[in-house]
Sequence to fold (373 residues):
Amino acid sequence: MSMGMRRAWTGLCEFFQVGTWPWFDANDAMDDLMPWGRGSLAQRQQPQGGGKKPDMPEDPSSSSRNLPFYHQPVLLQEVLDALLPAPGKLIFDGTLGGGGHTEALLQHGADIVAMDQDDEALAYARARLASYGSRFCALKGNFRNFASVLSEAGVGGLDGMLIDIGVSSRHLDAAERGFSFAKDGPLDMRMDMMSPLTAADIVNTWQQEDIERILRENAEEQNARRIARAICQDRVRKPFTSTLQLAEMIARVCPKHGKKHPATLTFQALRCEVNAELPALREFLAQAPRWLKPGARLVVITFHSIEDRIVKHAFQNYAAPFIDRPEWPAQKLNPNHCLKLITKKPLEASETELQANPRARSARLRAAERLPA
Ligand SMILES: C[S@@+](CC[C@H](N)C(=O)[O-])C[C@H]1O[C@@H](n2cnc3c(N)ncnc32)[C@H](O)[C@@H]1O
Fold:
């Protein structure tokens, strides 16, 4: 790590410890959110372990051994191949989740500054990765705001950036978070429990046209009108409070075709809206390339075609040397040209990975590299 980068990193870690941001005051509360063990900031900053090297566990693969299952990272080898982690590199992970990708990057020697908007994910990953000491720093926040968070903390350029968007397995498995149509829970779906809008607010209070619009825009649901109408008719008799109540109503009005549950796309659309997932992705992509040092890589993993299309178009826009319009007499230099595509087509999980982790089946990875200045 260069002196400048080391200074920025130390600043970030000190900033983190001083706790001037509101979410740092909630550190103890966050430990309480984590029913599986405590991973306080003090532990993270001062790893235990006698003569052991402080920031590299003896057996790094064992760090989550005493923690319950949270999430299986997808396309892990592909992420490593794309980001090329190594000692001295500083990589941003905007979707820390259970810390699986971050841990693999740490094991390859990179330092990580990570973000997640979910307190439970932060608490879990901090506990899991405590033994990496000051090489790992986890911040609460939405990756759409990463630029202001990192610049406030004194971080300049990055050697790599990763976002692996959407929900974690923990979100789907925890009925009380309300993400799954297969488990009964409150109609919530917030990743950040401090944000004001829940899925219940949308289905119980929004106009039919607005519900129909988000079903189309966020999930390309063919039955958008029929489902929106049924939601608005049913809620007069009884407001929607639970995931199964909504899923069963949709199954009644849209009989099942094929393997997919008829509520799959409605749940996707509501989750996207509650967490403003598409605007967050667009805002991240608008700023990310500026943060990459020359030769540094940007990796985005998506889970449905709408997200992948947004990433594809953004990458194409940054990778085109020239732009052209029918009304222009000649093509012009593209002022946004700053990336080279590493993946012409998105990478997908191998058969072996799918066997081990069927939830990887919709994952698509795109990567690009910052051109020299
Ligand atoms: C698919 S999981 C990431 C899993 C992680 N890569 C791992 O290996 O465990 C997505 C995570 O990103 C978080 N997330 C999603 N959108 C986010 C956003 N806009 N800002 C910050 N975190 C976000 C979710 O809370 C969730 O924990």
Q: What stands out?
A: The first strand starts at residue 90 and ends at 93. Strands lie at 90-93, 111-116, 136-140, 158-164, 292-302, 322-323, 332-333, 339-341, 364-370. The mean pLDDT is 86.
